[in-house]
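## tool: complex_structure
## caller: assistant
## args:
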Amino acid sequence: MTRKAAILGAGVIGAGWAARFALMGWDVAVFDPSPTAKATVEAALDRARASLPALYDSPLPPEGRVTHAADLAGAVRDAAWIQESVPERLDLKHTLFQEVQAHCSPGAILASSTSGFTPTELQAGAQRPGQIIVAHPFNPVYLLPLVELVGSGETPRDLLAKAEQVLDSLGMAPLTIEAEVPAHIADRLLEAVWREALWLVKDGVATTGQIDDAIRLGFGLRWAQMGLFETYRIAGGDGGMAHFLRQFGPALKWPWTRLMDVPELDEALVQKIAAQSDTQSGAHSIAELEAMRDDNLVSILRVLKDRNAGAGAVLRGHEAGLALPAPDPDTPAMPVTLDRQVPVTWVDYNGHMNEARFLQAFSNACDQLLHWAGMTPEAIAAGHSVFTVETHIRHLDEVQIGDRIRVKARVIEGGGKKFHIWQELWVGDRLCATGEQMLLHVDLATRRSAVPPDRIANWLARAKAAHADLPWPEGVGRAVGQRA
Amino acid sequence: MTRKAAILGAGVIGAGWAARFALMGWDVAVFDPSPTAKATVEAALDRARASLPALYDSPLPPEGRVTHAADLAGAVRDAAWIQESVPERLDLKHTLFQEVQAHCSPGAILASSTSGFTPTELQAGAQRPGQIIVAHPFNPVYLLPLVELVGSGETPRDLLAKAEQVLDSLGMAPLTIEAEVPAHIADRLLEAVWREALWLVKDGVATTGQIDDAIRLGFGLRWAQMGLFETYRIAGGDGGMAHFLRQFGPALKWPWTRLMDVPELDEALVQKIAAQSDTQSGAHSIAELEAMRDDNLVSILRVLKDRNAGAGAVLRGHEAGLALPAPDPDTPAMPVTLDRQVPVTWVDYNGHMNEARFLQAFSNACDQLLHWAGMTPEAIAAGHSVFTVETHIRHLDEVQIGDRIRVKARVIEGGGKKFHIWQELWVGDRLCATGEQMLLHVDLATRRSAVPPDRIANWLARAKAAHADLPWPEGVGRAVGQRA
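## result:
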């Protein structure tokens, strides 16, 4: 069932929301009278299409339809989620919410991207205060999972629960905050760093480039995977957190930070920072920097997913709901065992998908088939698995980054110790590679070949029988360099 | 030439320095009278051996010898680098430096890991003040590249330049700070965040787990690859940094942070944080958390290296100096084309090196051979390259994470459009896999086969001739499932 989201205000944040909703299959109605709104949304959609699907090893739902509404009423009508991302002026938001509530469904979620205002402030004077909540995302919204979710005493708990469900379904990580404080949590931490950084630049202690290096070559790497407290817990060693705090306590009183007041952001400081930033990053356009940032984030998020750590655990949970449907083993057709977009991390110096990633695709696809056959994490934990003993890959055509690849599989031999599989990798109607593999069922305790459990043997034997009458694939049993 | 480092104080930081120096080939003398010092250093060495080499696709130099000195004089004698990491008490450091300078070479670098004191404070009363500098690293020292390097007016510039060279050679990223301020740069930013976080916990706004999620699911991901200013530059869009600052300026005056004073870290707050931290992380021992952190950092650093971004660019620069020596193509022996440790990111659910990583190893090794033959980045930029058309891999034995693998290559056909290569992957004296590949030289403009440039053709033809009389490898020309 396609659902509709209304995006009110399409700057960087609103456009990011639009892209996230659309790529997760929602229809999106954008309302922003600015003449640049369409271009901003299109740019965000392009960046999201190049990055968000690349986080997943399964296909996303079909993209929703993005339209630009001529008036607010049309945008919010029938919307299940209404996201406000207009400038941070309370009077503006109040006026907007009044008009929204005159036209939207009372059951819709009306969420604000505000970083500064509390729900109570936003709800003041509203027709239905309980409908308005804070859902504060982080740029780029289509890649970063965090959303700070805040309600007030007026907010029904089931509305917050519903909001959490929707955000989960978008692949995001709602962090529901019980207390209303200005700037929620993350921006308070960011503000603190920002002020200190301004002092360091103003006083000539460091340039913007040096401060950025001090972050991304040191603690920034730590914070991509563990936060502040868990990191310090480790530093405290086996003495534990209380030990660390008692040791660290005295240092807290040292006059280290300049944060006792706020630096005057006068024109001289603005110019100083702008000039240093030009020196640091001016060689790249904003679009180039955005692409670099997104490619870096995709790369980091993908390895965190492999490790099931931090934001990668969020991705894993979401991906579990995107798995391909299990085929009936008796169907006389090669099942689709992999369906995915080629991520940027799979590129090589020839600008296309690297040869090793073909084997990764075949390996993942084969794992999917075996999983359907019964080689579940539980079966593996019980000591059953397969080891590949031989592989023959033929590259028939190039595959590009961003291409959607599909792998189909034929069971040539299966049901006993040996498992012989034929795989084809397609982009649309182009056969780009074939992979022929011989695998052995093994006992993980002895690391030697073994007969698979009945359930797995039976499934593979049925698939072999169902595939037996399909045309014999061209290329099976071929050695390297051998002609047809 | 092996050089010697003296490590004075072997807590978490000192032990991390010892591991970094030793794994980069330095002999290390540790001086720390604590009864736990040996165990701390051994644990750091174990973690470093499991992680630091995994960052590189080339072998590190042979590990240096780590000894524990009975007295300070013995530790610092003949040391080229002396690193002090004792507790943060100025009187303690002054006493130590006096004794060090009585025994060390005047040409040695005497660096302090202090996070709080300035070089001028450290140098007070010293025999040779100019010899003492700050080299402030970040935990884990054996993985994070950042080192804040600070001197005083007494510090000779060439000593700082020498220190930068040494840190570069250790794979670290020295950030030389011109001004002396308490806590340098990074810890000022960290302190600001820490204080704000303490307020949030104390006031019951958020738990330690929520604050950690607010970091690692949002801005922490950004900061692993770009810092504060570059991230905000992007947020400013094409209006540039000055535009962003003018827009952001007013918000800076909002009463968002509680940092106007320092929260009282009384026993109640200590217990509150400790209990929340237990809830958040108590299921894992510190050793487990350290291993998770290190595996995550290795994963993140490796993808940043692929993208040449942030800390990954530091790794790339360092790795360039670790490349294998180019062989003479006329030598009648298979050259070693890859020599590396198997990183944790190459594991699969069977607990060993995944099959796709065998092809990655063969692919990288083949690229190395072609690079020696003249397929340089310049040649590729000029439109010359190779595409793999066929691969046959036989898995003869398992390879484990942490194993040191070596690939050897034989040119079966080379010099014309076709390039036929035979590769063997060894762990010690175990042949674990063979890879037979057929590649085509291509013109990258037409994506079609082409005759390689003379230089490359000539090198490969010579290698083919030199390998021609070697024994014919068992397994060449074999199809999947075909017996000898």
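## assistant note: Chain A touches chain B through 152 residues (CB under 8 Å). Chain A has a mean pLDDT of 92. Handing back to user.
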